[in-house]
Amino acid sequence: MSLDGVIDAPTWTFDYGFLPEMEEAVGAVTQRCRGILLGRTTYEMFEPAWSTRTVEDDPGAPFFNDTTKYVVSATLTTATWRNSQIIGPYDPAAIRTLKDEVGDLYVSGSGTLVRAMLADGLVDELHLLVYPLTRGSGPRLFTEQAAPGKLSLAACESYDNEVVYLNYRPQA
3-state DSSP call for residue 14? Predict the structure, then answer.
């Protein structure tokens, strides 16, 4: 996420690198997750990027390839990435059931999905890597239409590349 809240395709993050400490923070989150929940657009971006990676290419590859991926989509009919299931259009009740059955779900990207889940009270934690730049325009995690809300800071870290990791939990 950029400092001004933009969450579009993060090619602009490449200049900062992905430090081992950042990898550890993300690894701690993924370690406890039993499933990956993705929107269609993110699934279609991740599948070609991750499906051929190995642990030698990226330590996160086994998580993304071996963990079951649940894809929220009203239009996608076939999942081509192994361990993927299409669960249909966004339905808060179906997401609640999935959370109850699977346990912790990891969501990466998927801005439309995350915004809907936030609105429906389905997000337990936000894990944000905030990059020290502004984008000016682009899709944002919190749009102007988002309902006001309060979050509690659960953890934060700053890194040598000036990126900040923030972990927030919604307040009841």
Answer: helix
Say what the alpha-carbon torsion angle 112, 142, 169, 74 is, to the nearest 10 degrees: -10
The reported pLDDT for the residue numbered 147 is: 87
Which residues pair with residue 18 across a beta bridge? Answer: none
- Strand 164-170 relative to strand 126-130, pairing: antiparallel
- Choice among 34-43, 85-94, 144-153 with the minimum mean pLDDT: 144-153
Quick check: 162 and 122 in contact, CB under 8 A?
A: no
Is the separation of the CB atoms in 170 and 153 below 8 Å? no
Q: Is the dihedral of CA 49, 17, 68, 165 positive or negative?
A: negative
State how far the Cα of 160 lies from the Cα of 107, in Å rounded to an integer: 26
* φ/ψ of residue 155, rounded to 5: -165, 155
CA R_g for the chain:
16
Phi, psi of 131 (to 5 degrees): -95, 145
Query: What phi, psi does 30 have (nearest 5°)?
Result: -65, -30
